[in-house]
Structures are given as C-alpha cells and as structure tokens.
Amino acid sequence: MREALSLLIPACAIGVFVLPRSGGWARSSVFAATLSLCLGIGFSSVIATALIVGGVAPAGPGFVLADLTIWIIVAAIGWRMREPKTRTPEREAESLEPVDRLDWIVRAAFGVAATIALISAIVSSHRSPHGDWDAWAIWNQHARFLFRGGSDGWRALLAINWSQPDYPLLLPASVARVWAYAGHESTLGPTLIAIVLGMASVTLVVTALGGRRGWIAGALILVANPFLTQVPSQCADVPLACFIVATLAVASGAPILDPKSRIPAVIAGATSALAAWTKNEGLVFALLMLLVAMAVAVRRREGRQLLWGMAGAVPALIAIVWFKLTLAPTSGLVEGQSLNDLVVRLIDLHRHRTVAVLMAEHAVRWSAPFAVAVFPLVALVAAWRAVRDRGAVRMVTVVLALMLASYYLVYVTTPFDISWHVSTSIDRLLIQLWPSLVLAVFLLSPLKKP
Amino acid sequence: VRSSLTRVASAVVLVWGLVSATVAWRGAAMRAADPVTALEEEFRTLAPVLPPSGAVGFLKYDVDDDRPDHVMVFYVAQYALAPRLVLKRTDLDFLIVPSDALRPGVDERLDDFVPVAGSREGYRVYRRRVK
What is the pLDDT of residue A370? Predict the structure, then answer.
C-alpha cells in the first residue's frame, strides 16, 4: 500500500499547520485532517509537476527522495510555526455537547449509508479499474505521459487534441506521483485518489456543519445517484467538487482553528487555486472567490485576509499560469473563435432557449432513486435561504449561481453542437456544485434538538 | 409542528440516502465488464516491437472509422502506448493495424509494410519495408 502512504505523507506535513492543537474536539480535528488530505493531494501535484519539468522523472530513483525531502522540510517549517495550544470556549462547548439517542440513530443511519456508498465505489472501481471513458482517455492517459515520458517525453500529450491537452495537471500529476511511490503503474493509484476525494467532499460538509444537521447534510449528498456513480469514475469532477466545497466551507466560517487567524484565509486561497489547477471550470470558481475576497476586504476596510488568501493561492496559481501560458494549447471552446462569433452566438435568442431547455431537462433528470428534480429543488431551497438570510449562505449561493451562469454562457457560445455539448457534460457540471449546494442549504438551518 | 416536520424530513433524507447508496452498489455490481482492460492488454503485447517514444501510425478503419467502438480502439491504443503518439497516418515507419480495419482483398495501404508482431485478438504492428 505504498500508494496510500504517498497520499498520507503530504497530508501529515500540511496537518502540522492545519490540525488544531487543542485536544478533545473531534469535529475540528476530522475537518482539519480531511482538509490536510485534500491540500496534500493538491500541493503534492504542484511539486510533482515542478520536479518532472525540472528533469526528475517519476519513474527514476530520485523522484521519491526529492519529494519526500520537500515534505519533511514543509513539516519542519510547520512545526516551528505552530501556534501555542489554545482552547476556545466555543470549542469546549462543542466537545461537551450532549449526544442523545436520536443523535445516535442519525449517526448510525448516515454511517450505514456512507459505508454502502464506499462499498459501491470499491465494487465499481473493481469492475472498471481504468475508470470511465474520460478517465482513461484524458486524466489517466496524461498521468501515463507524465510517468512514462519523464521530463521531456510527457509534453507529447499536448499534441493529442482529442485528449483535452489544455486541461490542468492536478489529477494526472497526483496519479503519476502515486505511481512513483508505488514503483510501478497501478490502477489502485487513481482509484485511491478518486475515492479519497469523494469521501472528503462528504466529510468536509458533515464536519463543517457539525451536529445532527451535519449528518443529515451528508446523507443528502449521498441521495444524489449521479454523485455516487461519479466518485469511482476517476474523472476530475468530484475532485473539483471537493476543492470547491472545501473553499466555501472554510470561507463560510467552518470551525477550523481561530477564525481570526491567517490560516482560514490561506486555506481558502489555496483550495480555490487548486480548483483552478484541477479543471478549467475551477478557473471561473477561483476568479469568483477572488472577487468575493476583494468585496469582503473593501467592506471591512481590511486587506490582510485578502493578502493571506492570495499567499495561499500562489503555489497553485504559478503552476496553472505557467501551464496555461507556456504549454497548454488553446481550449477547443475558444480555438479559432473570433469575438464576432461569440457576440453573434450570445445575441442569438434561439441558442439561449435551446440551452435553457436542455439544462432544465437534464437538471430535472439529475436525480435520486424514486425522485425527480433533486438538484433544482435543493437549489430552490438554497436560493430561498439566500434571499432570507445574509452572510455565509448568501455568499455560497451567489457563488454557485454564478458558476451555473458561467456554464450557461459557455453553452450559449459553444462552437460545438449545443445538444451534444450539453448532454455530454451538464450532469458532471452539476456534480461539481452538488456538495456545496447541500452545504448552502444547511449552513443556516440548524435542526432544533428536542 | 415545525420540529416534527423537521424530524420527518430528516428521516426521509436519511432513508433516501440509504436507498440511493444501495441502488449505486447494485448498479456497480451489475456493471458490464470493462472493455478497456482487455483491449489495453492487446496493445501492451505489441509495445515491445515499437520505438519507446515518437509517433506511430494507426490504420484508419476502411468503413465507419468514427463508429464509437472503432474510436474506442484507437483511443485505447493511445492510452496503452503512451508516451508514444498514435496518429491516424500511414507515412510513418510503424503502423498499428486492427484486423477489421483492412479493406476486403488486398489493402494497398499496406503495400510498403511488413507485419512484425501480432496480438491474440488480431491487432498487428507493421513496419515499413527497408528500400
């Protein structure tokens, strides 16, 4: 299980920064440990890419040594920077909160559902070890180029225009790194990353909300069958969903360390930039989060948190800017398109109608067993809460609405056949937003205890 | 009343989560065998006779080259043979040939090539004749 070890090493190093030092508060520790795992996968992919570009081939003996050295240094820096042990009254109250019989029933029901979902992901991975079509045709293929091609040979992937060579490298570089630790290519590597990030998406929501509503929110995420079937697909949509929900959970004041410290801002900056390093849609999300952070800074007349956020985003941003500006070919969505083409499509009402109808049809079908329109219904509840309540729920809902609007605009201006484009991608785009949508619904809906 | 409604809604979500996870498990167990693994194995057996990098050709299907199963074979060839580039061209030194891509009778696209290796299911590698 060297594959698992390779994921734990960066998680432990980042955990030194992120894990709370005050003991006895399980929810905060699980939230921070899950974040560390996600950040570890994200940042280790940036380092792996840097090593490969710098001439250290993942199949060679020096890669693991160099990678390990970097993570030991990161952990050592984190250890020196650790803040003294603190215990806030809020956390003490949380740790002492009584758990009644109903709580245990809710926890048990969620636990059984989550275990079955995990078994389903493992069974699916066993049946389809290379993942879904896009997984082997894009993500794992890019990983093979990185692993087998080494410092120069991997660039050949940029010439395969049907394999989306403009897609960022978080997932392929993570898989190549896991293979480097394993010493060989294995289907276990990408499977492990897929399942870990799928579980993390649910865990972040459960622990960010806490209490009974956290467990119920987790169960609601599992209700969506498209999400469950996409987790073992080894595609980038669930990882992107994970980084999006991590950012929004931290930005909306999830219980991680001291909210007044720099750590939440750094983490939110890092996870939003890692979303951009995961998939092109993540670029839109990172831009939206930057706008949110700027708006908050202007409103509070305090720019320090914004700067810490940008500091957290720097490593992944350097990777994505370098990749997009120096290597990646133009996306098929804009290649050969003039501004005139885009404007003509944008003012074509027939295209708007077609896209709106197709998106609505797919959203209604995107569902759960014995149900329809789960996504639209939950989105309506989130919108209602956003109108009624201020604060985090409004911020999260507005960001998600703008993400949906950006998908809509891309469809309206697409150079491809609209029906084909929408029908082959909208289900996965909704998955990217699903855990965050559930988070938005439950953020301000505390279930009253009996 | 609100508390009771909340409890009912919570119970529905929890039961629904259980049902959905069970349905996903059932779907995963009934999933058809993955065709990529078998196809990939075919192309892996051909890899030793190919150069370790650079471009290799892939013979276009004479009929229905854009049919999904034919597209899949081409894509899996690329997946299996990375970091080589697999291109639908015949002007390269090596050519991968699916048996059902050939034209009936004599396929003149292979005139300058000789077969050098084959897989169990009939995928072959041809090499350009030395003139």
Answer: 79
